[in-house]
Specification:
Blueprint: H1 6-21, H2 23-33, H3 38-50, H4 66-78, H5 80-89, H6 98-108, H7 111-134, H8 144-156
Helix pairs in contact: 1-7, 3-5, 4-7, 5-6, 7-8
């Protein structure tokens, strides 16, 4: 087995799967990150508070930071209902049109898309756990195959 950088290989596999799984998932995540301005976050938090949701804001997703996608997706799922309520109210925000709100709301009402994000978050979680093991300075080469086998087995479950 010749893997110069198993973490990088796992993440390349994941990013390829992302392209196949759904462009909507990453598109939606990127749209939500466009709300990450102080005025928008304040309005979102106000809506969340008024409707008894957790006051959360999106976590930034950076393609070059392997762990950031998992954190971003988990946060996104945690704030899903509050975000949907916020978008449904169509607050007056600079640069956001009614059409954009309607498109975003249709994505947030798409149950299959939400399931895709839950699935992707779960797979990403498993890959991140394997990445942490693979980055351990005490990792012995004979355990590499075991770690990768456990990863594939846990994803298949």
């Amino acid at each position: 087995m010749d893997l110069k950088d198993p973490n990088h290989a796992l993440n390349l596999v994941l990013h390829h799967c992302l392209e196949i799984l759904s462009e909507k998932v990453l598109g939606l995540v990127n749209k939500i990150h466009n709300f990450n301005f102080p005025q928008r976050i304040a309005l979102l938090n106000k809506t969340q508070k008024e409707n008894n949701f957790k006051e959360l804001s999106p976590k930034h997703y950076a393609k070059t930071r392997w762990l950031s996608l998992e954190e971003s997706l988990e946060r996104f799922l945690d704030m899903w209902d509050g975000l949907r309520k916020f978008v449904d109210q169509k607050p007056s925000l600079t640069g956001v049109t009614t059409k954009q709100y309607e498109k975003l709301l249709s994505l947030l009402n798409d149950k299959k898309l939400r399931f895709d994000i839950i699935f992707l978050s779960g797979v990403r979680n498993k890959i991140n756990k394997a990445n942490v093991e693979l980055q351990n300075s005490k990792l012995e080469i004979q355990n590499l195959k075991i770690i990768l086998f456990k990863l594939v087995k846990s994803i298949m479950k």
